[in-house]
Each structure stands twice: as C-alpha cells, then as structure tokens.
Amino acid sequence: MKLTLMILMALSTACVxxxxxxxxxxxxxxxxxxxxARLFGNTLKIDEHRLKDxxxxxxxxxxxxxxHTVMKLFIGGNHEKAIARLERENEALRNGALAKAGILTLxxxxxxxxxxxxxxxxxxxxxxxxxxxxYGKKNAEYxxxxxLAAVCSYGLIGFGxxxxxxxxLTALETGIIGYAILGVGPLLAAAAAYSIYDGIRxxxxxRREAIARQFPNVVSKLALLVCSGMIMDxxxxxxAVSNTGEIYAEMKKTADELxxxxxxxxxxxxxxxxxxxxxxxxxxxAILQNLSKGNAEIGDLLRxxxxxxxxxxxxxxxxxxxxANSQLMGPIMLLFLSIMxxxxxxxxxxxxxxxxx
Length: 357
Prior knowledge:
Oligomer: single chain
Largest sheet: none
Radius of gyration: 28 Å
C-alpha cells in the first residue's frame, strides 16, 4: 500500500511540477494569447447579457402595475453591473494590463506551444472547426487557443492536486474519505477539464439544430420573394433582417460581405462553413450555381428545397415526439406506483385493524 501511495504521490508531484515549470516558462506570447482569449470571451458574455436583457425587457412590456413588479422578480433584473465590470476589464486588457487575463491558463498556453501534438493535433483541429462555426475564422484561433489552454492547465493542476490530497488523507488514515478522494478526485478533475471541451461540442450541436429548425422558414421566404420577381441579393437581404436567430445572423454576415464587394463564391462559401449543415450547404450551392442563369431556374430550385425542408421538419418533429413519449414512460410509471402506494397503504392499515393485528 505504501508503495502505491508513493507512486501516486510521485505522479502528483510530476503533474504539479510540470504545471509550475510551464508557468515559469510562460512569456509575452503566452500572456498575449491569454489576453486575446479573455478579451473575446468577455465580449461574448457582454453580447449574451445584452441579448438576455433585451428579451427580458420585451417580456416585461406585456405587464404593468403590480403584475410588472411580480414578473420582474421572476424574470430577473438587468446585467448592467456585470456588463460594466466586463467592459472595464476589456479596457484594461486593451491598454496592456495583461495580468487581467489571469495566470491559471498560462501553463496551458506554454504547454500548447511546447508540445506540437497538443497545439496542432486532432483536438486542436476539432476545436478550431467548431469555433469557426460559432465565431467565424477571424476569432476562431483566439478561442481555440484559450479553450485548449484551459483544458490542459485546469486538467493538469486539478489532477495533480486531487491525487496529492487523496494520498495525504489516505496516509493520515482518515478512513474511507481518503480512499474516496483518491479514487474520485482525479476522475472529477479529468471530467471538469473534459467539460470545457464538451461544452463547445454541445454549443455547436445546439446551434446546428437551431439552424435546421429555422431553415424551412428561410428558404420559403427566399422562394416566395424570388418567384415574385425580386433579384436574389435583395431577397437575401430582406430575409436576413426579417427575423432573429442563428441562421438569420449568418445571412446578415453574408449580406455585409456581399455589400463590401467580396466575391459571391467567398461570401457564400463562408456561409457554408459557419452554418455547417447539409440544408444551408444545398441552399448556398444552388445560389452559386445559378448566379448567371437568372431567377427562373433558381426559383424552381428554391421551391424544391422548401418542400424538402418542410418534409424533413415533419419527420424530425415526429421523431422528437416519439422520443419524448418514450422519455415520459419513466415518470408515468413512477406516478402510477406512487398512486398505487397511496391507495394500498390505507387499505392495508384498515384491513390490519379490522383483523385485530
């Protein structure tokens, strides 16, 4: 047992020593990478807070008087203080206060630059593709570096600290607590590091699902406008500003690129990369193939795409309903058992009393 604890303590010491060595190795490049990632992350949080505040304000406009006060308690207040704090931090980062980026991720940035298979391997490429979808090519590199550094840094120090604490408590003979921390602690540290990576995957998946849900409405509007005689660029712009949502935001970006005289092939190609769904790829490819053929053929293609999109939407809705029904079986059975217990227990007590037990 002592030999096992010594080996685990050596492994813990190696992890912590590597983390400290990477921290000491960190220089200007690591600090700048951490600052860029923190700056962009703060900007995203500010945008999310403002969007949530706008939605809450729109919801509160439906109420007045006492109802307004009550609903405000449920919906919540605004994020003005949080936004102001993040803006102050961003301003400090822009002015060169790199310490505002924190030191916890610096070892991860140094490790990423020191070991090629971390900084250029499959994990990096996967994260970069997902960040391109979420934030575009311009900001994808900053976010990829930040997330990869956080995974490496938090995973390394968390794993080492959990092992050290478990070995210490086990050596002090604290009973099952030491063994529990020794067994579960490193797993929790690894799970926490993985959750950072998995959070990006989940966010990308939710975004793709939202785009797929919004696509039938988008392609139907485009088909209606184009078939009525409107040119594609005008129809695209009107559809982009007609609603809010992930696909509409991406259409606005594409419209801005076209207005800046970026080649249609590049603008629609970026749209395909950012959305990364088969539906949007079909739409953009159809538009590119028919730019020189006028509205007659593209109108027919858009109508066909709209029909296929609504058919897929119906099939998806049916699958979701079947999945929801299967998930409800568990709670329904528990409710049924609870009702049976509530009925049978009093009956049993009454029968027992009448029998003289």
